[in-house]
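Researcher: Sit down with what I've pasted below and flag anything odd:
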Amino acid sequence: MTTQEPEYKAPVQIPQKAGWGAWAMVVVLTLAYTVSFIDRQVLNLLVEPLKAEFDLSDTRLSLLQGLAFTSAYIVFSPIFGRMSDTSNRRNIVLGGVAVWSIFTALCGLARNYWQMFGARVGVGAAEASLTPAAWSMIADRFPPHLLPRAMSILLMGPYIGGGLALIFGGLLLEFAENNSFGSLDAWQVVFIAAAVPGVLICAILLLIREPARSADKDGAEEAAMPLAEVWRGFRARGKFYFNFYAGMSGIVIALYAFPAWMPAVLMRKFGAEAASVGLHYGTLVLIGGSLGVLAGPTLGRLLEKKGLKGSLMVVPLIGASAIFLLSIGLALAGSYEAGLVFGGLASFAYSLPMAAASGALQIVTPNRMRGMASAIYVFIVSVIGLGAAPTIVALITDLVIGDEARVDQSLAITCAGAALVSLFLLVRARRAYIDLAAND
């Protein structure tokens, strides 16, 4: 991926309003984010075909969902974070989309478990490019009062993408099972088809320009802080960053555990077909997740108008509380419809804090270290959330409960426990956020 230096010299002040070009950039980045989650999560609907094809246990299958993707994602996130502070961010995103689309297609051409594992590693490495570059670009095009709204639009991508992966993945899987595609199995056709939208996104990204970098409040004009100064900034604000990163990781565990295992819950516990699960649960993920991420900044503003300090950091506390209750409800669900209700409401609950929390992180982080702050956020929540969540559920199912039909209980234990830890840490993060916001 290119590391070409962007064509700007001195940074400019953050604009006080956002024009159509800024919102168009957000839409294009949201499309890229949507495609990334289609490529990332379409595997979740293919759990049963892949288990049969490669003779996998839940634990080995979960390594494709988590470790294979995350091992590369967490290694490359800081690299792309630093590049996003020093290089052309539009080109970073463009190269990332092209590479992860190629590796998604290679997932469909895999002939054994380790080929699939390697292709998932490639998808993870390339997708690490998007978040730090996109967040930094948006922060340079929007004033602070519009930043949470812009972030909420971007963060619709995971839920639109995750929902579309299930909806169209299920329909395409059913179509492929009933038609011949030569030597390709139905699950292979789904992977290859999921790679196609990335080509269109690459073409659209060519129309987006690299934003000028805004100056910090101190008027500094370096394009990026020296690394030593970046680490000093993290240490000085360590109470916020530690509790924020760790606390949000608990919510991200639910964000990845539910989509990874809810299709299996609905199929194993209630005997539903993959196509039906994809359509029903996928629709709920798309609607519930999108509404949640859009509602977060609105809820934050309402709380702020009521005089509640650190309102953006109150929203994650509400989300974590809801995740705890809904996880318990899922374990008690006695029908397919009830399982769908709890799964759909959970998608709203774990998406609700995402835009508000991302906006809070950008607001209290100096401009010239935002790329690294975003990358470290992605790194930590990926290790704990994306990397660990699917495997924690699988290990509880395989080693503790010992019955794959009771995966709903494993999912509930994992997400309820993570939500409780998250609540404790996010209370501390909010206190530190209030202090930082007052000082800045």
Notes: The chain has one domain: 20-213+230-439. DSSP finds 20 helices and no strands in the chain.
